[in-house]
Amino acid sequence: MKGIIYTRVSSNEQVKGTSLDDQERRCREYCENKGIEILKIFREEGVSAKSTEREELLKAVNFCSKNKGTIQAFVVFKVDRFARNTQDHFAVRKTLMDYNVTLHSVTEAIGTNPAEEFMETLLAASATFDNRIRAQRCSAGMLAKLKQGLWPWKSALGYRRLQVRKHGLKRTEPDPPDEKIFPIIQKALKEFAKGLYSETDIVRMLKQDGLEELSGRKVTSQSVDKMLSKYLRFYAGILVNPWAGPGEEREITGLHKPMITREELYQIQAIKSGKKVRFTYDRYNPEFPLRRLILCASCNETMTGSSPRGNGGKYSYYHCKSKDCERFGKSLDKVTVEKDFVAYLQKITPNEDFLAVFNETVIDFWNEEKGKISTETNKYDKQISALEARKKRICEMREEGSYTIEEFKERKEEIDNQIMAARISRNESNIDQLDIETTLTYATNCIRDLGRQWFDVSPLLKRQFQKRVLPEGVPYSKENKFGTAKLGYIYELNREYVANNSNFVVPRGIEPLFCP
User: Fold this and answer.
1) What angle do CA 284, 286, 291 make, to 5 degrees?
2) CATH number of domain containing 188
3) Looking at the domain assignment, is residue 497 inside a domain?
4) What is the distance between the terminal CA atoms of the chain, rounded to a whole angstrom?
5) b or e along 244-267 (b: 16 or more beta carbons within 10 Å of the residue's beta carbon)?
6) In 10 A of CB 36, how many CB atoms?
7) pLDDT tens-digit profile of 430-481?
8) Which domain holds residue 201?
9) DSSP, res 173
10) 142 assigned to some structural domain
């Protein structure tokens, strides 16, 4: 018997234990046990949540069509990998039967006897049911554990899995650190957070420290990338609730021992996003948060800070660092400068009238853009209509005698497969709708009180916050306090709005507001 293998992952998530490689391996084992010779393997990658094209399925079905009589088996890992809609499932199933090809599921008993056909119907219907309630489906037990600060799934590398279920117990404690592996990964993460090492350096470091021997896993650039992205929040002591809805807490502080601090988490994320972060202390000094932001009113150079000691202890000052400036050496009391800065932030904070107009404008803009996004289903409807018209024309050409019976069957099968694939894509297309009202509420709350935000924002994000508000810095003098400066886009709009110099028309390509 000869056959083909079709593997697929969800377009919007990786299903645990059913990655493409794992599906292929288990499908190969099934074929070997059943004596099925594999002629070809089709892999549906599922690149993104926006992509519902089923190109590989269409290729697989066409391959069966062109090799009719040669292919006897169409092997999938699971029915819901094949199609997630009962109608789609049996449409493709019938097409395969027309080619004398039998559908095989590695993990489920499906076949041609009445009991197996009944089971297949239940499985296909179950896939449909699962697809429709996926957003509502979650385990109450798992969610309860999450809210308690316990990770209900397998912990990241560096922690020992407590075998509570094996002993008939319930999970009441977090997975403890692995005494040997934990410090190795912790050291690598902390070194990477300093901005002194590349991911390739981290791979080399982990190998040198013996992680491969201790864990039994190969250390690769891909595994390190997972540590620095997928598992990073867990390593920082944060549990992510995948079922959190609007207004619900998505991040929960875990009870497990973190490897890194939240500040190091932010630092790694900044480095991963492409920011060339080097020495943290050189870019941001928590003792002098306005260093490199405030400018000397005379020479326009950024100011620095220092804390000389005197008889009464340590005294902190901001001062110009340019030796050629007339204000060089003239100190500005740190407390006074930072107090003036908070007052300046309050001055440029958008007022409530502006925020109300801003919200209405953004909502109008979003409603206009939403119409463009929702054309996905219409696209497939038009595609299906065009294919149906072509099919009708093929039938007409057969009646006219333009096609032989063999040519007609071949052309009809080809167009039927295209229609089937298009219908599946249409059924699986899902447009993510942004909760714009909630987003705006969060954004306006962030900019409604800039002074408080400046105090509350994480130290490692404070520089970003200041740059969003004052992208080129702001001049300061003891006499005149803070002068005129270029403001971030939203605050510039507010300034124009207050001065009645703007009709407040949001241009195309409006960027999202930064919010710590």
Assistant:
1) 55
2) 3.90.1750
3) no
4) 60
5) eeeeeeeebebebebbbeebbbbb
6) 20
7) 444 455 666 777 778 778 888 888 877 776 677 778 888 888 889 998 888 9
8) 165-280
9) S
10) no
